Amino acid sequence: MQRIPFLDSHTGGEPTRLLQSCPFELGGGSVAEQLNVLRTRYDYLRRMAINEPRGSDVLVGALLVPPADPTCQFGVIFFNNVGYLGMCGHGTIGVVVSLAYLGRVQPGLVRLETPVGVVEARLHPASPAGHPNRVSVRNVPAYRYRSNVAVEVDDQIVHGDVAWGGNWFFLVHDHGLDVSPQNIERLTDFAWKVRQRLAEQGITGQAGAEIDHVELFAPAEQADSRNFVLCPGRAYDRSPCGTGTSAALACLYVEGKLSPGQVWRQQSVIGSIFEGQIEIVEGQIVPTITGEAWVMAEGNLLVDERDPFGWGI
Ligand code: PYC
Predict the structure, then answer these.
(1) What stretches of 2-104 show up as alpha helix (H) in DSSP?
(2) Is there a domain that residue 313 lies in?
(3) What is the whole-number distance in angstroms between the Cα of residue 29 and the centre of ligand 1?
(4) Domain that holds residue 31
(5) What is the value of pTM for the model shown?
(6) In this predicted model, what pLDDT tens digit does every residue of 154-208 receive, in sequence order?
(7) Is 190 found in the same domain as 106?
(8) Whether the Cβ atoms of residue 99 and residue 110 lie closer than 8 Å to each other
(9) Ligand 1, residues at Cβ distance < 6 Å
(10) What digits encode the pLDDT tens for the residues 33-79?
């Protein structure tokens, strides 16, 4: 029987399952290199932790690995029900709060190496009543790659920006849909079709990268904007999506709608909020996303080698 310790948290409703160490030897090197080994040789670890019958489509996994960058305390590889993420904003907040719960970090700065670069998290001090749970993540630089790209869905032409925030996003404002929890099925269906049309029309991120996240925006009453983000495996992000908010901030900045240091409140479709702001560093747009996570379960994932679905469906 294999026992793999885990700790679950959620960030604005979006879950993160932290695996504190890898049961397999990934060969060292950068986190991007370790991801290649994980993906090609041990992808069943991802399926076991995330997929049914143990997990669910909405779960995001975070595997801690040794960083190659000596300025970082941790390396982290994020994954979901269909594959691997470059970065994950809600996941980074969840990981840092989980590490604080485990006593492995204290309020202050934590540097993490991800497959797409180093991110710097600040764990804010706790209120007197509890564990620290508020984290600001200074993300990898974000940028808008293409603007106002037309896509036809259900006899309707919509327009979107292609932007990077640690993952590739297509950001759409003129969809005409109600962005509310009552409309999740319609939003999912529509965003999925947008993603399919992008692939059919050969619309990609830089260097032909697949655009695997679609983000639909609407006005909000208690924030600057409300979003619905469809993730690569067809689950929607319950949080406002850290990398998606980063991509949105980059677009707002180049449109002259956001200044460095100005706080942008991004609300998710279920109502949770991230605060975002940008700084310009050597001409690059560097977003910082702030949100809260809550630990909610800990234990061991058990794999019985006789179980035909023990490593996931
Ligand atoms: O918060 O960056 C994020 C994220 C990506 C996918 C799910 N959440």
Answers:
(1) 31-41, 43-50, 89-101
(2) no
(3) 25
(4) 2-139+295-303
(5) 0.97
(6) 899 999 999 999 999 999 999 999 999 999 999 999 999 999 999 999 999 999 9
(7) no
(8) yes
(9) 14, 60, 85, 88-90, 167, 231, 237, 239, 241-243
(10) 999 999 999 999 999 999 999 999 999 999 999 999 999 999 999 99
